[in-house]
């Protein structure tokens, strides 16, 4: 008689959803940590910060709005959002704004660098969580993959074009560009490369199936 799996399909989906939500909340918190470090930001957050400074609207709320506007660009690219895409728009900026309300700004260059690195590490772990849940890309990542599929651009070309554009616009609007911008660009790829396998639900499911196939029969 075969053993019944400990986790059924519904349980597996629920765990993936929980992983998605935790990852998105931590992502927003990590972005807030980098904002308070004050030494520069990733291109999209530079853009959101610039818009925030020009409009007086909180940077977290602007991040949500930018995510929604980017999602509209998916329409001509014929992309379809997933649950993760919608959750990204709703949660990342909200988490960022709530964290900024309680997190003080940082003074002193060395401490600023250390805090920024901590924020980058948190974003990398959060990225592994929400990407590994596999509920669809965030609106910004989907824009770049959509450009790749629609126009045949290499992913790196689409990413460089989009991020260079938003970085320039954000800087012109008053967003913070500095050492942190460079550190994030250099570190985030390798860090996510490390964290994603930790939380990739597809990899875990594959390992689970292998384990069930190789497990000894009851009484063996």
Number of strand elements: 0
Put simply, the count of helices is 10
Low-confidence stretches: 214-220
Mean pLDDT: 89
What does the largest sheet look like?
none
Number of domains: 1
Order of helices and strands: HHHHHHHHHH
Please estimate the helix content: over 70%
User: Which structural class best describes the helix and strand composition?
Assistant: mainly alpha
The span between the termini is 12 Å
Describe this structure in words.
The protein is globular. The protein has helices at residues 9-37, 43-55, 59-72, 74-77, 83-102, 109-132, 139-151, 155-172, 179-199, 201-214. The chain has one domain (9-210). The model is unreliable at 214-220 (pLDDT under 50). The two termini are 12 Å apart. Helices cover 77% and strands 0% of the residues.
């Amino acid at each position: 008689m075969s053993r019944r799996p400990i986790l059924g399909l519904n349980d597996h989906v629920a765990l993936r959803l929980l992983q998605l939500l935790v990852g998105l909340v931590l992502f927003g918190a990590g972005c807030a940590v980098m904002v308070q470090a004050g030494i520069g930001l990733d291109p999209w957050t530079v853009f959101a910060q610039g818009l925030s400074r020009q409009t007086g609207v909180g940077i977290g709320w602007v991040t949500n709005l930018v995510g929604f506007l980017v999602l509209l660009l998916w329409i001509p690219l014929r992309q379809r959002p997933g649950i993760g895409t919608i959750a990204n728009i709703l949660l990342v900026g909200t988490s960022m704004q709530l964290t900024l309300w309680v997190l003080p700004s940082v003074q002193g260059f060395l401490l600023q660098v250390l805090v920024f690195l901590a924020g980058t590490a948190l974003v990398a772990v959060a990225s592994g969580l929400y990407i590994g849940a596999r509920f669809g890309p965030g609106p910004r990542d989907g824009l770049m993959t959509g450009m790749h599929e629609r126009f045949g651009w290499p992913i790196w070309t689409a990413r460089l074009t989009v991020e260079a554009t938003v970085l320039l616009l954000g800087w012109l609007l008053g967003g913070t560009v500095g050492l942190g911008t460079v550190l994030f660009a250099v570190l985030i790829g390798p860090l996510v490369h490390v964290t994603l396998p930790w939380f990739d639900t597809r990899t875990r499911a594959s390992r689970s199936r292998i384990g069930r196939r190789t497990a000894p029969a009851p009484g063996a």
